[in-house]
Design brief:
This protein is mainly α. It has helices at about 5-35, 35-50, 55-65, 65-80, 85-110, 110-120, 120-155, 160-175, 180-190, 195-200, 205-215, 225-235, 240-255, 270-300, 315-325, 325-360, 375-390, 395-425, 425-430, 435-455. It folds into 2 domains: about 1-50, no CATH class; about 55-455, Amino acid/polyamine transporter I (Up-down Bundle), CATH 1.20.1740.10.
Length: about 450
């Protein structure tokens, strides 16, 4: 496509970011010339809102990786708006289990693998971490391949080379960027997900059908329908997100001199519980809203025109072009790249955190590479293997299927262990999770047992 056609799509997220920065710069002067304290409160609210977001927002946005975009596109293409209810249902389940993982990290200053090493059989630790590593590397390969294909659609060139380029770029970002700067970059990259908001805004949407699909569940007991439901929930509730958010909370304790593990600083417990809840529920809400928008986009365009066989996110973007125009196509394609630049580092880092904690290494993105050589070596190794897999004859669709199977195998025992961990006074002291959160956590766990059972049957 010509530069004049896809340039507006590139400018959309840039314009959004620029508008936010201009707003932050201009509003203080408006306060000075305007109504004083009242205007200042209006200015401070969005700034404080943004500052309160952290690991939860990044975790939620990382859930919408290119592989997830492909799954949501498949759901919309095959069944239109009928599966909107899955995103509504997934939200409280996902947010609850992620809040539990965050509380474990903030309370103990260890991630899930660290607590598994300290309090559980070593065989269970090795089993879960090994499966997580395999699933993450396969997911990395699929995501990098999707990013390469998306860039090929926009500007041309070899998709595999672009995939390797993105892999190297992500390694460089993690190796040579200060931790605080790196986290800020990830935070701003979450805005790339607004590209999917932009897509919904530029196509015709039958909102009456959308609302019916969101709030009136439709279930058909056939293999295809159940398989897509399993894929949606398996993509939304992912083990690597549990490891990532718990270790990020633990890392913040280490990198922030004012923060301490709640086990030794109980006076911080109430404020930190509120922060974690706010951050996590906003982040997961954002993730599920974007997933819903991707599903709606595919339903309103692909499904409406009889295109129901979509296997990858790049195929969805390409199929969108003649139906919704170049602008929507480019927004969708560039959104794949933006979400990938956020999700791929999270996937690689969660692998390194899990292996590093399991083997009691020096770990953390807050450390310099020479201070945590094995940790960064694992991170880079996972990224390199994922990049190289795109140069083999491995079928990416089959790879994604087996990655989903592995994630399902890991998710159920890991969620059961997390629930035990978060309820144990031996591990959490006086900061075990409250009854309502415990109830939601067990509902999410039992639901995933059902999802994995359905996966096995289908």
């Amino acid at each position: 496509m010509g530069g004049e056609q896809w340039l507006p799509a590139i400018l959309f997220p840039i314009a959004l970011l620029s508008a936010l920065r201009i707003l932050c710069a201009v509003l203080p002067f408006a306060c000075w010339f305007g109504k004083g304290a009242r205007m200042w409160k209006l200015y401070r609210y969005p700034i404080n809102f943004w500052r309160r977001l952290g690991p939860g927002l990044i975790t939620g946005a990382a859930d919408d990786d290119p592989s997830g975009i492909a799954t949501y596109s498949q759901a919309g293409a095959q069944f239109g708006f009928l599966l909107g209810w899955t995103m509504v249902l997934a939200y409280p389940l996902m947010a609850s289990i992620q809040e539990i993982s965050a509380r474990i990290g903030r309370t103990t200053s260890f991630g899930l693998a660290g607590n598994l090493r300290l309090f559980y059989p070593i065989s269970l630790l090795r089993f879960l971490v090994a499966l997580l590593l395999i699933a993450n590397v396969i997911n990395l390969a699929a995501d990098l391949g999707a990013m390469g294909s998306a860039l090929q659609l926009v500007i041309g060139g070899p998709a595999r080379v672009w995939a390797a380029f993105f892999g190297l770029a992500c390694i460089g970002l993690q190796l040579f960027t200060d931790y605080r700067t790196y986290i800020a970059v990830l935070k701003w990259l979450t805005l790339s997900l607004f590209s999917y908001v932009g897509v919904v805004l530029v196509i015709d949407m039958p909102w009456d059908q959308v609302l019916r699909g969101m709030f009136v569940p439709h279930i058909t007991f056939d293999a295809k329908f159940l398989a897509v439901i399993v894929a949606v929930f398996g993509t939304t509730i992912s083990p690597y997100l549990f490891f990532w958010q718990s270790t990020q909370e633990a890392e913040d304790v280490i990198s922030n001199p004012e923060a301490q593990p709640l086990l030794i600083a109980p006076e911080q417990a109430e404020s930190e519980a509120k922060r974690i809840r706010f951050d996590t529920w906003i982040g997961m809400g954002f993730a599920n809203l974007v997933g819903l928008f991707v599903m709606l986009t595919a339903g309103a365009t692909l499904h409406a025109h009889g295109i129901t066989d979509i296997q990858t996110s790049s195929q969805a973007a390409l199929a969108l072009k003649p139906l919704a125009g170049d602008f929507a196509f480019a927004l969708f394609a560039l959104g794949i790249i933006g979400t990938g630049m956020l999700a791929v580092p999270v996937l690689a880092a969660s692998s390194a955190y899990a292996v590093g904690e399991a083997l009691d290494w020096h770990i953390g993105l807050g450390r310099r590479p020479r201070e945590a050589k094995a940790f960064y070596g694992t991170l880079a190794g996972a990224m390199v293997v994922g990049s190289l897999m795109n140069f083999t004859g491995i079928d990416p669709i089959k790879a994604l299927f087996w990655s989903a199977v592995l994630n399902g195998v890991i998710a159920v025992p890991l969620m059961i262990v997390m629930m035990h961990m978060a309820s144990s006074k031996k591990i959490m002291g006086d900061h075990t999770i409250p009854p309502k959160l415990k109830m939601m956590g067990w509902i999410a766990t039992l639901f995933m047992v059902g999802v994995v059972g359905a996966m096995a049957v289908s």
